Amino acid sequence: MKFLSCFRRPLEDPERPLLNDGYQAGCVFCTVSKDNGFAVEYEDEELIVFRDRWPRALEHLLVIPRRHTVSTVHELTAADIPFIERMAARARSLRPGNDVKLGFHIPPMSSVHHLHMHVLVPPFTLLGKVQYPVRMGEDGGKKWTWFVTPSQVVSILENGGTIGLKARAGKKA
Ligand SMILES: [Zn+2]
Ligand SMILES: [Zn+2]
Protein backbone atom coordinates (compact mmCIF):
# COMPACT_ATOMS: atom_id res chain seq x y z
CA MET A 1 0.00 0.00 0.00
CA LYS A 2 3.06 2.25 -0.02
CA PHE A 3 2.06 3.79 -3.35
CA LEU A 4 -0.73 5.65 -1.62
CA SER A 5 1.80 7.89 0.08
CA CYS A 6 2.46 9.55 -3.26
CA PHE A 7 -0.94 11.20 -3.15
CA ARG A 8 -1.00 12.51 0.40
CA ARG A 9 1.69 13.29 2.86
CA PRO A 10 1.36 11.49 6.18
CA LEU A 11 0.16 13.37 9.25
CA GLU A 12 3.62 13.31 10.77
CA ASP A 13 5.46 14.53 7.64
CA PRO A 14 6.97 17.94 8.47
CA GLU A 15 6.81 18.78 4.76
CA ARG A 16 3.06 18.29 4.63
CA PRO A 17 1.41 21.54 3.58
CA LEU A 18 -0.01 23.24 6.62
CA LEU A 19 -2.91 25.64 6.89
CA ASN A 20 -1.66 28.77 8.66
CA ASP A 21 1.47 27.04 9.94
CA GLY A 22 -0.55 24.14 11.25
CA TYR A 23 -3.24 26.22 12.89
CA GLN A 24 -6.54 27.02 11.30
CA ALA A 25 -8.27 30.28 12.15
CA GLY A 26 -11.51 29.70 14.01
CA CYS A 27 -10.73 26.07 14.92
CA VAL A 28 -11.32 25.52 18.63
CA PHE A 29 -9.00 22.49 18.76
CA CYS A 30 -6.13 24.61 17.40
CA THR A 31 -6.40 26.64 20.62
CA VAL A 32 -6.14 23.71 23.06
CA SER A 33 -3.73 24.52 25.88
CA LYS A 34 -3.76 24.76 29.66
CA ASP A 35 -3.52 28.54 29.35
CA ASN A 36 -6.69 28.60 27.29
CA GLY A 37 -8.59 26.72 30.00
CA PHE A 38 -8.50 23.18 28.60
CA ALA A 39 -7.95 20.27 30.99
CA VAL A 40 -4.81 19.01 29.27
CA GLU A 41 -3.69 15.67 30.64
CA TYR A 42 -0.77 14.90 28.33
CA GLU A 43 1.12 16.67 25.55
CA ASP A 44 4.19 16.16 23.43
CA GLU A 45 5.49 17.46 20.11
CA GLU A 46 2.75 15.86 18.04
CA LEU A 47 -0.19 15.02 20.34
CA ILE A 48 -2.34 16.71 22.98
CA VAL A 49 -4.73 14.78 25.24
CA PHE A 50 -7.41 16.69 27.14
CA ARG A 51 -10.75 16.16 28.83
CA ASP A 52 -13.89 16.70 26.77
CA ARG A 53 -15.91 19.59 28.16
CA TRP A 54 -19.15 17.63 27.74
CA PRO A 55 -18.26 14.10 28.95
CA ARG A 56 -20.41 11.30 27.50
CA ALA A 57 -18.99 8.71 29.87
CA LEU A 58 -17.44 8.45 33.34
CA GLU A 59 -14.24 9.74 31.73
CA HIS A 60 -14.05 11.26 28.26
CA LEU A 61 -10.72 12.33 26.78
CA LEU A 62 -9.84 13.60 23.32
CA VAL A 63 -6.53 12.90 21.56
CA ILE A 64 -5.63 15.40 18.83
CA PRO A 65 -2.65 16.08 16.60
CA ARG A 66 -1.12 19.34 17.78
CA ARG A 67 -1.01 20.62 14.20
CA HIS A 68 -4.12 20.97 12.07
CA THR A 69 -2.92 18.79 9.20
CA VAL A 70 -6.06 16.68 8.83
CA SER A 71 -9.64 17.81 9.42
CA THR A 72 -11.53 14.52 9.44
CA VAL A 73 -11.05 10.78 8.93
CA HIS A 74 -12.22 11.23 5.31
CA GLU A 75 -8.77 12.60 4.48
CA LEU A 76 -6.70 9.78 5.97
CA THR A 77 -4.59 7.53 3.77
CA ALA A 78 -2.37 4.51 4.41
CA ALA A 79 0.52 6.92 5.01
CA ASP A 80 -1.25 8.06 8.20
CA ILE A 81 -1.41 4.57 9.76
CA PRO A 82 1.67 5.02 12.01
CA PHE A 83 0.29 8.30 13.36
CA ILE A 84 -3.15 6.78 14.05
CA GLU A 85 -1.43 3.88 15.85
CA ARG A 86 0.50 6.34 18.02
CA MET A 87 -2.72 8.19 18.89
CA ALA A 88 -4.31 4.88 19.95
CA ALA A 89 -1.21 3.73 21.85
CA ARG A 90 -1.13 6.99 23.78
CA ALA A 91 -4.82 6.62 24.66
CA ARG A 92 -4.32 3.04 25.81
CA SER A 93 -1.35 3.94 27.97
CA LEU A 94 -3.38 6.69 29.67
CA ARG A 95 -6.56 4.58 30.02
CA PRO A 96 -5.55 0.90 29.77
CA GLY A 97 -8.88 -0.84 30.54
CA ASN A 98 -10.25 -3.42 28.08
CA ASP A 99 -13.68 -1.76 28.18
CA VAL A 100 -12.33 1.68 27.18
CA LYS A 101 -13.78 2.68 23.79
CA LEU A 102 -11.61 4.52 21.26
CA GLY A 103 -12.71 6.06 17.99
CA PHE A 104 -13.41 8.85 15.56
CA HIS A 105 -16.64 10.38 14.31
CA ILE A 106 -17.23 10.32 10.56
CA PRO A 107 -18.52 13.43 8.73
CA PRO A 108 -21.17 14.77 8.83
CA MET A 109 -21.27 13.49 12.44
CA SER A 110 -17.95 15.06 13.46
CA SER A 111 -18.63 18.33 15.25
CA VAL A 112 -15.13 19.83 15.17
CA HIS A 113 -13.17 19.50 11.94
CA HIS A 114 -9.74 18.97 13.47
CA LEU A 115 -8.92 15.26 13.64
CA HIS A 116 -9.73 13.99 17.15
CA MET A 117 -10.02 10.58 18.74
CA HIS A 118 -12.50 9.98 21.55
CA VAL A 119 -11.40 7.96 24.60
CA LEU A 120 -14.43 6.81 26.59
CA VAL A 121 -14.25 5.08 29.96
CA PRO A 122 -17.61 3.47 30.83
CA PRO A 123 -20.21 3.70 32.14
CA PHE A 124 -21.63 5.88 29.35
CA THR A 125 -24.22 8.61 29.74
CA LEU A 126 -27.54 8.24 27.90
CA LEU A 127 -26.19 10.25 24.95
CA GLY A 128 -22.88 8.41 25.17
CA LYS A 129 -24.69 5.14 24.56
CA VAL A 130 -25.92 6.26 21.12
CA GLN A 131 -23.18 8.56 19.85
CA TYR A 132 -20.32 6.06 19.49
CA PRO A 133 -21.72 2.97 17.73
CA VAL A 134 -19.03 0.48 16.73
CA ARG A 135 -20.11 -1.96 14.01
CA MET A 136 -17.56 -4.54 12.96
CA GLY A 137 -17.41 -5.56 9.32
CA GLU A 138 -15.43 -8.09 7.32
CA ASP A 139 -11.62 -8.01 7.36
CA GLY A 140 -11.57 -5.88 10.51
CA GLY A 141 -13.44 -3.11 8.67
CA LYS A 142 -16.82 -1.60 9.50
CA LYS A 143 -20.47 -1.74 8.58
CA TRP A 144 -22.57 1.41 8.05
CA THR A 145 -22.05 3.68 11.06
CA TRP A 146 -20.78 7.15 11.92
CA PHE A 147 -18.10 6.00 14.36
CA VAL A 148 -14.88 4.14 13.59
CA THR A 149 -12.26 2.63 15.92
CA PRO A 150 -8.53 3.12 15.32
CA SER A 151 -8.09 -0.57 14.50
CA GLN A 152 -10.92 -0.34 11.92
CA VAL A 153 -9.25 2.77 10.47
CA VAL A 154 -5.97 0.89 10.12
CA SER A 155 -7.50 -2.18 8.50
CA ILE A 156 -9.61 -0.13 6.06
CA LEU A 157 -6.61 1.99 5.01
CA GLU A 158 -4.37 -1.10 4.76
CA ASN A 159 -6.91 -2.58 2.36
CA GLY A 160 -6.81 0.51 0.15
CA GLY A 161 -10.13 1.91 1.35
CA THR A 162 -11.14 5.32 2.65
CA ILE A 163 -13.12 6.11 5.78
CA GLY A 164 -16.76 7.01 5.25
CA LEU A 165 -20.20 6.26 6.63
CA LYS A 166 -20.67 3.31 4.32
CA ALA A 167 -19.28 -0.13 5.00
CA ARG A 168 -15.76 -0.30 3.62
CA ALA A 169 -13.63 -3.38 3.62
CA GLY A 170 -11.03 -2.08 1.23
CA LYS A 171 -11.04 -2.60 -2.51
CA LYS A 172 -13.81 -5.17 -2.47
CA ALA A 173 -16.35 -2.71 -1.04
ZN1 LIG B 1 -7.56 22.87 14.29
ZN1 LIG C 1 -16.21 13.49 17.67
UniProtKB/TrEMBL annotation:
Keyword RNA-binding listed: no
Pfam annotation, one family: DcpS_C
Renumbered ranges of motif Histidine triad motif: 114-118
PROSITE patterns hit by this protein: HIT_2 (PS51084)
Residue positions of the active site: 116 (tele-amp-histidine intermediate)
Coiled-coil residue windows: none
MF terms (GO), sorted A to Z: hydrolase activity; nucleotide binding
Ranges where the HIT domain occurs: 28-132
InterPro entries: Histidine_triad_HIT, HIT-like, HIT-like_sf
Keyword field: Hydrolase, Nucleotide-binding
Native species: Apiotrichum porosum
Keyword tRNA-binding: no
Protein name (record): HIT domain-containing protein
